[in-house]
Structure formats: C-alpha cells, structure tokens
Amino acid sequence: MAGNNRPEDPSNERAYTGGADASGDDGLDRRRRDLGAKLASRRPETQVGAGDAKSRGATGYGQAMKLSSEFIAGIVVGAGLGWIVDRFAGTSPWGLIIFLLLGFGAGVLNVLRSAGLVADAGLHSSDAPPADTDRK
C-alpha cells in the first residue's frame, strides 16, 4: 500500500518517525514540534511592533489614492472625449453623456483590475497560439 506508515515497511522510513516509545499523543506532539520548527526556520523574520501599524496604514492610504485616481481618471477622460466629440460633431449633449458613461465603466474596470479582483483581458495569455511572424 502506498500510504502505509507501518514500521515493517523499510521503504517508508521517512514518513514513519515513531518507534516503540513514540506511540499515541507523544509521537504526534514531537512530530508537530519538529514540523513547527522547520516551518519557523523557513519563514522570513518579521518584527511586529508599532512601526508595522503605521506602515500598513500608509500603504492603505497609498492604495486608496491609487484606486481613487484610477476611477477619477476614467471619468475625466470619458467626459473630455465626449465634450470633444460634441464640439466637432455638434451632437450636444449626447456625446458627453455616452462617453461619460463609458468613462465611468472604464474607471470601475480599472479599479477592479488594480485591486486584483478582475484579471486582464487575456491579450498576453500564455495559452494563446503564438503569433506567426514568418508570413510574407
């Protein structure tokens, strides 16, 4: 059997760490402590203190500013394009209304992408077939 942890199985010495004295809870506690020590040695050292709370707050404000600027930029660009379309095409106020709504949608999409809640459009997907650059 592949997952057998019996002491009679010499090929599975690494999985079986207990002997006659490591039965029951004592063996489990020792293995748990050993595993905890291994995990602690692999974790990066972090200092928990008052400075961490300030840095987390600063990164939170930075993230909020980034997300709000992404949203506002989408709306401003949409409104600007709509105003320009209305100026040149004489379709006032429809260009402004339509492009303002498109800018709002683009701003929401940018915020969701920036927050990591929506993946990119897949333009650079690895499962897409490679572009054929040898064509003549």
UniProtKB/TrEMBL annotation:
GO-annotated cellular components: proton-transporting ATP synthase complex
Q: Where is this region: Disordered?
A: 1-59
List GO BP terms, alphabetically.
Answer: proton transmembrane transport
Give one Pfam family, short name only: ATPase_gene1
Task: List where the protein spans the membrane.
Answer: 64-85, 91-112
Keywords associated with the record: Hydrogen ion transport, Ion transport, Membrane, Transmembrane, Transmembrane helix, Transport
Q: What is the purpose of this protein?
A: A possible function for this protein is to guide the assembly of the membrane sector of the ATPase enzyme complex.
Instruction: Family membership, please give it.
Output: Belongs to the bacterial AtpI family.
Protein name (Swiss-Prot/TrEMBL): ATP synthase protein I
> Which organism does this record belong to?
Tianweitania populi
